Structure formats: structure tokens, C-alpha cells
Amino acid sequence: MAGTITGAHKSITPHKPQTQASEAVSVQSASHPRWWQWPFRLFRFEEAILLVLLAIFVSLFLVLPNTPALDSLWAGFTYNFHGRGTMWMFMLWCSLGTGFLLLVAMLPLAGKGAARKLLHGVWGESRGIWGRLHATVLWGLAGLRAYAPFLACMGVYEMNKRLIPALRGETLYDVPMAQFEYWLLGDLSAAMVRKFMHQDWITNLISHLGITQLDIHEACYISYVYAAPALALGMWFLGRRTQFNRFMGALAITGALAYIGYVLVPVVGPKYVFEDRWLDASQGALAFMDNIKDRNRDCFPSLHTAWTTLFLIAAWHGVRPLFWVYLPVAIGVYISTLYGGYHYIPDIIAGHALAVFAWWAAKPLREWWDRRAGKLDSIKLSPAEAQSG
Terminus-to-terminus CA distance in the chain, angstroms? Predict the structure, then answer.
């Protein structure tokens, strides 16, 4: 997928070279890549980030004396796939979403007008039923490859959460986090949010809807397993590859830096450390999350916050209707991270900052990667992408 994508949208059409000399260099680089360019061509930018991080974690796993048995690591992977954990859910939503859009693309293979315009990101300039069918199949295969970072992030996470105790021992920073909150707010943020959310008017409003606080917070908290793939799929389907690439690159940067943050600042969350103070309000939700988290040191920064904020930024630039659709859910995610007792205020602040940094850094890093791969020409945005930012 690092090369030319069949059925590509015009938004990835390169500029024409400015001079004969630059044209000759570009052609030579494309025809005869040097040996050191092959890794840049074989792997996508976000794949390389996660592979390097995975290699570091594997090396530490093999070197450190106190790491758990490999059986424990394998159990985490098998749970996440066969036990319907996060990796299984990512794979499910990515596959179902891609399959659905493939069906949508195949129905009007000979269509014109509105159908032709809608499916330009899939068909490109292909004409005729067989040409469009070929482009559609390649689009689906390339799209599934593009989802690899979602699964890779969860794979690295499974290894990381088992590696941290061996690296940091019993070191935890929950007490300093709590002391900061008491200094700033006079109480734990989890207790304050829980108390606010259980005001009479909120409780009465929710009861009229026939749902519970537990329903809302669970739905919001786990929404990241389908929200991010849905946005990526939407941008890929519409042919907005520039924004898609930036989003996926930022996603990998966010995950990698968050996992490093978990190692440097191990925090388990107020739910586990201050069980008698943060005012537990939803035993069902907490038991559900315990099955996944198992008291992981994965709070600083809040990856739920980071990915949610990154989604909003990318949706605003790439598929703006999805921004408005997801905004209420995103607010629910921010609330549920505190309501469930999983995070402190510094975790949330760090998550927002990480998302903004990752979105900013993804563009120049992607351009650097493409230059190393021999793609010397800059990428030209389509009018729609240029207008969306």
C-alpha cells in the first residue's frame, strides 16, 4: 500500500516537476530505489512507529529478569481476539465497515452522476463494470491493510501492560496525582463528577429516557473501538487520503507516546487506590472494565481522552458531519473517564495535549518518511481537502 493505490482519489495526484533535472531525479528515484529506501517503501509511517516500539518492548521482555512468562502474554493476545476483547472488536468493526462499503461500491458499478461522484474515492478514473470492480476489490484490500495500526496499537498495549511491573516494580504516582487534585479542587475529581452526575434533575432526565447512568457511561467509554475505525473508513471511502494518512499517523504517534508515558508515570487510577473515597457508583461498569484492565498502569496520559480528541480534530478536517455526530459522545467519554474512577485531572490534560501534538507532528513526519521513500514530489490537495484544512 506504500505505492500507488489503484482507484486513488485525485487528491493524491502529485504536482508536475518544475524542471527537467528534478523530473529526471524523480523518475530515477522511482525506477531504481536505493537499498536504504526499501524499508520506507515496504512499511507505512504508522506501521514503522509501532513496529519499532514493539521491537523495543520485546527486547526488554527478553532481557529483564522479572517479566512474566510468555504464556501470560499469549493469553492476553488470545483473550483480545477470541475472548472478544479490544483487538477483536477493532477487527470486527474494521471488517464489517469495509465489507459494507464494498457492497455499497459494487451496487452501482455502472452508475453515473451522483453515484459516480460519491464513489470517486473508490473507483478513481476506472470505467466499465469490470474496471470498477477491479478497483473496488483493490480498494477494499488496501483499506484493510490501512487498519493495521488499530490492531498493532492493541498488540503493543498488551505487551506494555505486562512489561511495566517488571520495569517499575511497585512504583505508583497515584498519591501525587491525588494530592494535586486536592490542592486544585479540594477533592478527588472522580468524586466530584460522580456527585454532579447524580443530581436529581440529571437522574430524572435519564430515567425518562428509559436508560441508566451505567448505560451511558459504558456506551461512551467503549465507543473508541468503533469511532476511530469509522472515521478512518469514511475518509478512505471518500478518497481523502491526505487526511486519512495524517489521522493514522497521528493515531500511531498518540499510542506510542502514551505507552511510553505509562512506563514513565505508572498510575492505576483512583478506583483502585482510593476505593473508599471516590464514591463508586456503577459496580456493573467497573466489573466490566476490570475484566479488560486488570489493574493496569495505563492512566497517564489518558488514551481514551487522546484518541477522542484526535477523532474530533481529524473529523473536523476530514469528514465534518462525523464531528457533529460524535461530539456528544466525545463529551460523554471525557465525563466517563472521571465518573468511572479511571483517571485524574492530569491524565485528562495530558491526553488532550498529546492529541494536539500528534496531529501537528504527523504531517511533517509523514512528509519526511515519503521523501526517504523517494516520493520527492509534494502532495497536492484536492479543493475539498484544501478547504477542510
Answer: 24
